[in-house]
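Hi Y.,

Following your request, here is the sequence exactly as I used it, all 237 residues.
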Amino acid sequence: MTVLLLILSVTTGVFLGKHFGKKEKLAKNLLILSAGFLITICLNEVFPQVYTSAESNNLGIFVIIGVLLQMILEALTKGFEHGHFHHHSEHNILPAALMVGLFIHAFIEGIPLANEEHEISPYLLGIVFHNLPISFILGAFLFNRKGESKNTSSYPSLLIVALFALASPMGMLLGNYFHPNLQPYFLAIVGGIFLHISSVIIFESNKNHNIDWTKIGLVVSGVSLALIMHLFHQHPH
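Below is the corresponding structure, written out as tokens. Let me know if you'd prefer a different format.
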């Protein structure tokens, strides 16, 4: 079920991006909604699990490592995770670099899934909810690029989609070979990644620094969804 949800979150997002990719506002709104959801999962689920572990005294360093790692990955993805895709139609980004950046990002997120106590956990749903808008943007970029026919771009594009869809399941597979005591360290790194992505999306300046009530409403909606899920999720404590 976990692997199926991970793959479906990517393929569904890519499908929507391929057919509705010209609606940039829709992609932005999906990202903002997912950012509210993701930061709530991070603060209510990931960080409590990290800081209640036996190794909690040193794990703040790994959260920072996660933040720095995501900043490095963005040099490859050029901000796809934040919805910065309006430049990419001009080929400012290499598909190979995009593939590598997104693969590493998703692969690392998949590692902690190997030791999740529940098959459908808040952490998993956070990844799924996060994958949808990124995959939407990916589908819009890969299958709607100007100057390229569908025949010439289909095979490399499908390869990128397949690698991105399988990245988290592959990370989950690798996670089975790590000792469970390392789980808090991987969660701390991913928590830093989540925190950086969601905070950049949420706190990114609006045009002329005006109040964007739509953005606030979407963030509140994402937070509310995550809180509702948090209330109904059975915690081991």
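The mean pLDDT is 83.

Thanks again,
Q.
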